[in-house]
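Input/output pair, single chain:
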Amino acid sequence: MPHIHIRHYPRDFTADQLREIDEAVTAAVTRTFALGEDAVSISLEPVTPEDWQAQVLAEIAARPDQQVRRPGYVNES
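Output:
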């Protein structure tokens, strides 16, 4: 614990980009939760633009109480 699951549009990441994501996210989580690096896991899940509404935006709308940050493109109405 904790596990960070990042969904994103499909893309190819370089080894350096993956290392950057790993280091930045791990540093923030270990500092905030006061845990060692071995306690953190991170996964990346590509989601096609066609599936984004049903898979990601639907979850954002259904779980507003669990969000730390909402995307600026979500309609607030």
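The chain has two domains: 1-46, 48-77. The mean pLDDT is 94.
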